[in-house]
Amino acid sequence: MQDEDGYMTLNFKTRKPGLPTVEPASSSLWRVMALVLLFLCIALVVGLVALGVMFATQQNCIQIVNKSLPGTPQQLTKLSSQDLRKQSKEKDDFRHKNITCAPNWRLYGDRCYGFFRQNLTWEESKQYCINRSATLLKIDSQSILGYIKSRTSLIRWVGLSRQNSNKVWKWEDGSVVSKNMFELSENARENMNCAYFHNGKIHPTFCQNKHYLMCERKAAMAKAGKQL
Ligand SMILES: *[C@@H]1O[C@H](CO)[C@@H](O)[C@H](O)[C@H]1NC(C)=O
Ligand SMILES: *[C@@H]1O[C@H](CO)[C@@H](O)[C@H](O)[C@H]1NC(C)=O
Ligand SMILES: *[C@@H]1O[C@H](CO)[C@@H](O)[C@H](O)[C@H]1NC(C)=O
Ligand SMILES: *[C@@H]1O[C@H](CO)[C@@H](O)[C@H](O)[C@H]1NC(C)=O
């Protein structure tokens, strides 16, 4: 039908010049039109195939980005590296929150507590903690006091000492013991310059005595998270 119409139109147009001997001219024109149509069809098919390929490629790219595979196509390298950077940042943030302690150390707050059954003098205990990148315990809040009390019922050295009977009690970090938490001096006799913890109380005693001990150190990940 279309062919017929096309033919008629062409025939009509070609008649304009005037002569009845239009047959060769119109057939050559038809051939040209057919070729043009053919080219249009081929172009259309090629275009469709190209579109299909592009679509398929994009699908693959999306999948690759989703899976964050290392081998990404060039046009998506930027996006994918941003993606990976974002992911690793999220991982870091997550890790900062996820604080853990080494085996045998207990996590409480942002700190790790180690309870050791080593019978040592106060100085040896101090060194024992230092050898483990830790310090003797500082009990400076009711919550830590409660925690330690619940964890151990044994006598254990803490990081509290004084230079002599005339000096104030100080924690290992140099801070003075708060008066309302413990009453030390009234029990402390001459030359009792080191303190141990027992059943929720701090007791002064001779530094050369041997007791078990406990150490504390910052939970590794909490440290990084706090400093950032
Ligand atoms: C990519 O992941 C998102 C969410 O994780 C999902 O909705 C989408 O369908 C995924 N796309 C492909 C192509 O897998
Ligand atoms: C912390 O990380 C460990 C493994 O790295 C995991 O088993 C644990 O569930 C994580 N805890 C939290 C609270 O995310
Ligand atoms: C610690 O050692 C001292 C002296 O060697 C000893 O008298 C004491 O019973 C020991 N304590 C413990 C808990 O083993
Ligand atoms: C601490 O480490 C030093 C050196 O490794 C060692 O000589 C010492 O005995 C250790 N002290 C304690 C109490 O573990």
UniProtKB/TrEMBL annotation:
Location of the protein in the cell: Membrane
InterPro entries (alphabetical): C-type_lectin-like, C-type_lectin-like/link_sf, C-type_Lectin_Domain_Fam1, CTDL_fold, NKR-like_CTLD
Keywords, comma-separated and alphabetical: Disulfide bond, Glycoprotein, Lectin, Membrane, Transmembrane, Transmembrane helix
Primary residence: membrane
Superkingdom in the source lineage: Eukaryota
Protein's membrane topology: Single-pass membrane protein
Keyword Lipid biosynthesis: no
UniProt KW Ligase keyword: no
Transmembrane segments: 32-57
Domain C-type lectin per the UniProt entry, residue ranges: 108-216
GO molecular function per UniProt: carbohydrate binding; transmembrane signaling receptor activity
Gene Ontology CC: plasma membrane
Gene Ontology biological process terms in this record: platelet formation; signal transduction
A Pfam family matched in the record: Lectin_C
Name of the protein described by the UniProt record: C-type lectin domain family 1 member B
